[in-house]
Q: What sequence folds into this?
DNA sequence: CATGAATGAGTATTCATTCAT
DNA sequence: CATGAATGAATACTCATTCAT
């Protein structure tokens, strides 16, 4: 049998490999600056092979996005089943679960964050925005004072920003994640007690 | 005769007009997706004319950045003159002044935020990052617990994010700015009291 | 159970179906602009399947052409058996029979007419031209004055052109065909009486 | 001074040269099969140079067409000033003038004739068709019997077809043109006397 | 101060074709 | 009988940049 490496082993999983390499390069260099030539070369296939698996460049991105995004959709769906306005506990849970999702989908989120301008007029961009507001919808209490609404947004931003800036900072990743989550939870807690 | 509008009036300030139009387009569509042809066309000059005023495309961006960024440099310089670790009052003042700077330089910041991937390997990108860490350096207390450090970062992020997300939200701009500033100040205050 | 429509029913006649769809698309959009992907998709088979039935794209066209063209070959063969120069009656019969052939093979002829440039350096193109001159050979009298030779060509052209332009014009198709045939016969009649 | 050949001399007339070479190649090989690379190579410039002068490939064709087509527009305009239905003399003059126009614009017309399928969904195709019907409108008498209407169309077709088929035939070009014109005039004369 | 003309390197995308299964 | 996966070569088009005038 023998687990052949190289050209042999890669049958059937080309589609997946394209997505992996593409996301890696998109995150590293940006969407516009990553050419299909580059992706193809790194996979050691021709550009045309990419077009066998995906209809367009945008389609590659979309497919990655749709696959990684399911957990968030589930979280949003769960949130919408909860009573409105949300209890503090629901808010905390949302943040907590979101924090874990972010860790898994880190490269994609980093990409989204850093390529907003590019992605804005792609379908992917719209979906992303929708999801952000979807989360915000769950956290927010529309009757709360403005500062408390800001706090909810801020909690989300803290988590996003934190994920990617703190890598330039010393410390254990898991510990950092927890610190970030703590601050975010603090923010919604204050927003809640303001009621 | 007469002062004439249009082509006549725009003598001598072409350089400035290029910067204005360029920033507008960069912010609207992204740096990569904005071509020099587009900038030139909107100004009703030829592409070659742009090269009379600026050495490269990047140079246009750099020049805009350097011009709009001075107030931040001054703020950082002022901050560094203050004793370390910073008093709560200093922290508050930094955020407050930064908040005003952000309002004025909104398009540039929006651009920076949305084009990180692109701008990362431009000189401009480096400078921007330096400035962010410059501000953070002033706010932070290296001996504080991690959560408090996160709070300082979070304060900065809240301000950045707030500026651009809250435009999708109802309410008077100045009021929103104040709410954002309030939350940011709250964050550093808590960070401070943790000492 | 049941004779089943769709995929089931189409056994064995795939080759024919390819030809039909191909001709339809070739006529509609032109040979170059019709891709094998398009043909395959419309038939709900893969491109590779086309290659099971035909060696090349050109081969598809050639096969259609060869199949639809037999009646003309027979007409030409018949014409060549007649005494030279042809009697007026022979000429009339040739036109008359040709008129009917044209009706049946309309899509192919339309295609040929509209894709001359493309088809010129395909085998098919050569064959087509040969056949045109074959017909002309039967009609013409090499000793007649030039104007009469033109009339013979004109008769042929009238029939070709007529078929495809008159569809943009009101009136019953069969009536139009007859009017066209009448004019064509008139032309060869005049050519003949000039002798 | 010296009339430098080669790269020197060709300043200012590049646009014209592109049109010339393009028409030559379009007519020779067809529109689709002529690539911009080929045009550029034959002119010894880069592809990008073509794009300095024309916005798209189609634009090259359109520009050629618009330039060569003016005489026909004038002829149509003149025809529309004449009383309706047209006198026999007007009809003859239209054909006669059209015959001369065709000689001058021969390559373009040959191209149009041979690339109908391709050109159909280009602006140029529409314009061409419009012009054909424009001429037909002048010649036709809507109240005449169908056969006479066919004769008018036939006259036009005879001229078009004649131009390009007769080159495969022996004889002096000018003499052939006259024979063709004679047949065409005969056709409209008959159509007229049928009134 | 600016333009007209051009370039070289690149891009995403499409196509006819092949072949092992 | 047909497909899934891939290729090589091409295509139209765009862009930042240059330079003589």
A:
């Amino acid at each position: 049998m023998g687990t052949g490496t190289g050209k042999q082993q890669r049958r059937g999983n080309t589609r997946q490999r394209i997505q992996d390499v593409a996301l890696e390069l998109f995150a590293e260099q940006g969407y516009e600056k990553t050419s299909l030539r580059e992706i193809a070369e790194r996979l050691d296939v021709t550009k045309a092979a990419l077009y066998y698996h995906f209809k367009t460049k945008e389609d590659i991105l979309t497919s990655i996005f749709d696959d990684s995004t399911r957990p968030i959709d589930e979280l949003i769906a769960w949130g919408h089943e909860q009573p409105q306005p949300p209890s503090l506990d629901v808010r905390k849970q949302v943040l907590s679960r979101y924090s874990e999702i972010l860790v898994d989908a880190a490269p994609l989120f980093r990409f989204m964050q850093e390529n907003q301008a590019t992605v804005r007029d792609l379908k992917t961009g719209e979906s992303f925005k929708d999801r952000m507001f979807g989360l915000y919808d769950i956290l927010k209490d529309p009757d709360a004072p403005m500062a408390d609404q800001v706090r909810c947004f801020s909690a989300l931003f803290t988590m996003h920003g934190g994920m990617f800036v703190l890598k330039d900072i010393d410390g254990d990743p898991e510990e950092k994640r927890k610190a970030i989550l703590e601050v975010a939870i603090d923010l919604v807690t204050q927003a809640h007690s303001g009621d």
Q: What stands out?
A: Chains C and B do not touch (no CB pair under 8 Å).
